[in-house]
Amino acid sequence: MIETDPDLRAVEATLFASDQPMTVEQIRGYVGDSVDVAAALTQLALHYEGRGIELVRRGKSWHFQTAADLAHLLRREREETRKLSRAAVETLAIIAYHEPVSRAEIEAIRGVQISKGTLDVLMEAGWVRPAGRREVPGRPLLFATTAGFLTHFGLTSRKDLPGIADLKAAGLLDPIDSAMGEMLFAGEESDAELAIDENNA
């Protein structure tokens, strides 16, 4: 039981007090090396499953969040979400499925140039981050998605991104979108564009 297990209580308290998702290593820095943090997280996730708050994993990090079906109770004002442009949606989809990826590689996949503002919007939203430089002449800057991207779209990891077959089966692709998806992602199970549009709708 959590109420009597000091290790579980320590991990629970550490996560509860943090305003940011935490990795196993970060939690261990607070509770000590003697605590099996991974096992404690698994037990805590089961303990909170189906409750008003849940312990969830986003990438390599863990955090408490309000249960999705109860989030509406806490909203006093409806926020107006700015819609992404089609260029931003396509760019985000390409980064998510191909990261780390350079601007030139994004443009090669899209077939058109992207403005600096497009990447700025995605970085300001906290969904895209610089991810180092490729070790080739010119050392182009690379871009990748963030933990915030996973959290916003309710993904545990990038492996949870929908594949093009999934979107076809759900009837979310018309013939033109289907052909574009296969061309853009060259055989990879991907067409995040519509999936992200749906999440932002």
From TrEMBL:
Record-linked Pfam families: SMC_ScpB
SUPFAM superfamilies linked: Winged helix' DNA-binding domain (SSF46785)
Keyword Ion transport: no
Coiled coil (residue ranges): none
Keyword entries, A-Z: Cell cycle, Cell division, Chromosome partition, Cytoplasm
Top-rank lineage group of the source organism: Bacteria
GO biological process, alphabetically ordered: cell division; chromosome separation
Keyword Nucleus: no
PANTHER family found in the cross-reference section: SEGREGATION AND CONDENSATION PROTEIN B
UniProt cross-references to NCBIfam families, sorted A to Z: SMC-Scp complex subunit ScpB
Protein name: SMC-Scp complex subunit ScpB
Lineage, broadest ranks: Bacteria, Pseudomonadati, Pseudomonadota, Alphaproteobacteria, Sphingomonadales
